[in-house]
Amino acid sequence: MKSLSDPARALANGLAAIRREFQVPASFPPEVLNAAERAATKPLTEHVDRTDRPFVTLDPASSTDLDQAFAIDRSGADLLLHYAIADVAWFVDDGGPIDAEAWRRGETLYLPDGKAGLYPPILSENVASLLPAGPRPAVIFTVRVDPDGDVRLDGAERAIIRSRAKLAYDNVRNEDLPHGFVELAARIAIAEQKRGASRIDPPEQEVARRGDGFALVFRPRLDSEIRNAALSLAANLAVADTLFAHQTGLYRVMPEPDERAVRRLRFTARAFAVVWPETMPLDIFEQGLNSADPKHAALMLAIRRAGGGAAYAPLTPGIVPWHSAMAARYAHATAPLRRLADRYVVRATLAVANGRPVADADTAAFETLPPVMARADALAAQIDRAVIDLAEAVMLDGKAGRSFSAVVTDADERGARIQLCDFPVVARIAGDDLAPGDTLDVTLTEADPERRTIRFDRNG
To answer: Domains (ranges, CATH) in the chain?
Structure first.
């Protein structure tokens, strides 16, 4: 953690500037809010009553847009995960004002001082959110998990549920959770190892409020959060297999990091003094990283970015959609309040699981969603990068003239990319004589929070 005092409001003002620069919406147009008010009163006429099932939610304590709730049963040696997904589609008419605005946004945007939701709060933080305040509409995926962690979708239905508790990652106890929660997560982890998945869940680097100031932190992933992610993974894998079997769907795909990216990662590891044996492949190395170690955490983030990122792709005849980190077919279906694409994947899964054809609107959406989601993902990534750039500039402000040790992680016609050894900071310096792996000392010559820039020169 790097504490960032903000007496001159450099961070606060910088965050406001980022919102203006990237045109982060502050609210919704009146016609969208009016449509959401009307939609919130829509009666639930196609949902079976499952309020007797003991669902709970598990999220960050402050979350109010709750996409998932879960209950777990046993079926012989198998575990049955009843995974309830917020039925936002019930409230959104295709082509209506809410739908059109969601297509413009693509996903919820998060900043340290607040979020810009995909849907109006009356839906995303009220009637469509799986809060324990009362009955809520959901689509329940029943996922069968066998002792080896292999998953299969047993069914999907629209249902009314009632969450028993809003549990939080940072204070949940095992006894608060459905019996079988820990075992189910362990089964999924075993299956990942068996198929050679290299999925990693690094802690999130973020700017967090701390009293009157801020801090640049790696938010550690707690055991409860990692196990909860396993439930979502199980559902998304089962959905992907179901849709693929019916030759439809929208998938997350990701290529393997190329040779140059792996070489750059090795130099990044060297910068952090993390031992990576020359003969050890990336997928084995990353499984040994400890997210509680800040240097490992920074390296995990670099590994996640090295493959060029995941993308959305509709099913293409003759091509098996593949996600290299998952080592499997994979779809996004479990966060429809926060991602536009999930709403259509949920609807398609509900159709095929009940022997109905996928609606033409959903099939068409699978073809048109990839560029929309790519644009939304890119905007979210740009905002995240801008926030980190701002935090780094504030953190280094006033340190001009100070020397830092660094390692070159990459070099091209634009100069060299360096990783500071003692700070999670990446920067560029001029120099056509530098090669990846070179170690050097650099001097900070500029840190400008207003422009979100930092600049270093080589010593000597």
So the answer is: 2-254+309-396 (no CATH), 403-458 (2.40.50.140)
**pLDDT band at residue 436 under the 50/70/90 scheme:** confident
Cα 80 to Cα 188, 238, 417, distances in angstroms: 13, 12, 48
> Sign of the C-alpha dihedral, residues 138, 375, 218, 259?
positive
In angstroms, the CA 267 to CA 387 distance is 25
- Answer yes or no: are the C-beta atoms of 264 and 409 closer than 8 Å: yes
Per-residue burial over 226-247, b if 16 or more Cβ lie within 10 Å, else e, is: ebbbbbbbbbbbbbbbbbbebe
- Which pLDDT band, with edges at 50, 70 and 90, does 396 fall under? confident
- Of 291 and 97, the structure prediction assigns the larger pLDDT to 97
Taken as a whole, the chain contains a residue count of 460
Using alpha carbons, select from 352, 346, 337 the residue that is nearest to residue 366.
346
Report the b/e string of 324-355 with b at 16+ CB within 10 A. Answer: bbbbbbbbbbbbbbbbbbbbbbbbbbbbbbee
